[in-house]
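Hi there, hope your week has been kind to you so far. It would help a lot if you went through both lines with me. No rush at all, and the record is pasted right below:

***
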Amino acid sequence: MQSTLVSFPDGALTGEGEVLLVDQSAAIVVVDATPFHPVDHTWPDQPGDSGAIAVGDVQVRVTEAVMAAVSDEGALAVGSDIPVKRGGEGWTWMVGHRTEGAIPADIAVGARVTLTVDADRRDSLSRGHTACHLASLALDAALADLWRKEIGSDPLGNPDFEGKANQSSRIHPDGSVDEYRLGKSLRKAGFDSEGLAASLAERQQRINELLADWIAAAGDSRIDVEGPSIIDRRTWRCTLPEGEVGFLCGGTHVRSLGEFASISVSLDLSDPQLLVMTTTAVAA
């Protein structure tokens, strides 16, 4: 058994494959190839795709695609129950399709199936994920002068506040919510938290100005892959007026920033130890 081949990095919404495993108790179907993007259990920022699996006229709804792993002995582990790190010996990494209700008898091991992703949901999650990355870059730029010490740089060369402070990121259709911890360790690293609090509105305005400029430029956006399987590394790349940027990223993205009418953020510092950035995208 080999790791699931995935076509979602190319934007695929449909595909065909052979059923490799059916687990009725877990409501999971594993296929050798799929267009479905699964939620990553180690950093569950983007939800998995939903859609359907069909054999002829027989169809079952897929509520969410998830990461799964199968041991050399044939044991299935799903999501957070996977006991090994990615690439661990003795396990093969797969995409599991969690179904709604019982799995029809026609969708059995060895069957050739058609897989169809919910296009509107995928598109809105892709906009949300691209907007999330762009907002993080704009945030780093807007906070760059608040650092008193040298730290690592982001893809645009600004101090990497995102990488240093982000403690959670949740992508949803056409947006995201990111939380940044402003604790002692960040202050020791040289960040001026008090300066941020005193100028929050100005920082938010600067982020939104940058995002508006980037959207107006309508640069290309793509996913580069090192291989065709779910465990191969993928990198999101995007052309901005300042140059091309890239992040290691397992999610899905738009093909062009021209797909946005706007991206905007709001910053919340109600808890002085926690900056919350809410990003909202509007489709063109």
